[in-house]
Amino acid sequence: GTETPRHAFLWQGGKLERLFSDKRNSQALAINDKDEVVGTFQTRWYRSHAFLWIKGKATDLGTLKGGSSVALAINSNGRVVGYADYSNDTHGFVWWRGSMLDMGTLGGKASESRGINDRGQVVGGASTVKEETHACLWEKGRLHDLGTPGKGLCYANAVNNRGQIVGEWMPEGKGVQESHALVWVRQRLYDLNSLIPKGSGWVLNSAKSINDSGEIVGNGVFRGKFCAFILTPVSTRR
């Protein structure tokens, strides 16, 4: 049968507004505080391209080397990040004022930009010379290796305006429910499971976002059930 198209929308004032009027597939993935929306849509040539939607008008952000692209995040200044096809792999990108900049890699073949703050710091994951995937930070045109707790896949998902970063690590040969939620403070890596009370019943698998107050949201397993979580930092001062 024919697949039912998915439509990107903006919900505000109790109403849904479709971002594209035609029947092509589209998906909205992030929004900033100016109601500027990013995501991916199907072009006339049936390619998936990243888009930026502002006040009723969508802009095709293009790609790095043909193929497809996806926009995952946007900051308050209108800078957009995501990933795009690059040869036989994907590279993270930063889009700003009509130009798509390749984030590069850590010496390997692939990378992905997942989050950006208002200072223009970009986080994601990139492969090394040994083709290991490490969390990374792109800042002022340079890509920095944030490391990994061990072998496997490690990604930084979001960064707040204080430079605090959250993400996840999936150990080699393990599944999603055996991954570890991570946080970087001053680029020092911590497993979030080591920072919550022992015996809580939680296993924190992935940290998806962090605000400027240090509150973290993500998903994990609570007493055997897959659940969302929110963590609120507790001061250690007495």
Task: Walk me through this protein's architecture.
This protein has 238 residues and is mainly beta. The chain has strands spanning 9-12, 15-18, 26-31, 37-42, 48-54, 57-62, 69-74, 80-86, 89-96, 99-102, 107-116, 122-128, 133-139, 142-147, 152-159, 165-171, 180-185, 188-191, 202-210, 216-222, 225-231. β9 (89-96) and β10 form a beta hairpin.
Structural class, from secondary structure content? mainly beta
Average pLDDT score? 94
State the separation between the terminal residues, measured CA to CA: 64 Å
**Which sequence of SSEs, written as H and E, runs from N to C?**
EEEEEEEEEEEEEEEEEEEEE
Helix and strand arrangement:
Blueprint lengths: L8 E4 L2 E4 L7 E6 L5 E6 L5 E7 L2 E6 L6 E6 L5 E7 L2 E8 L2 E4 L4 E10 L5 E7 L4 E7 L2 E6 L4 E8 L5 E7 L8 E6 L2 E4 L10 E9 L5 E7 L2 E7 L7
Antiparallel strand pairs: 1-2, 3-4, 4-5, 5-6, 7-8, 8-9, 9-10, 11-12, 12-13, 13-14, 15-16, 16-17, 17-18, 19-20, 20-21
What's the short story on this structure?
The chain is mainly β and 238 residues long. Helices cover 0% and strands 57% of the residues.
Features:
four-stranded antiparallel beta sheet, 238 residues, globular, 0% helix, mainly beta
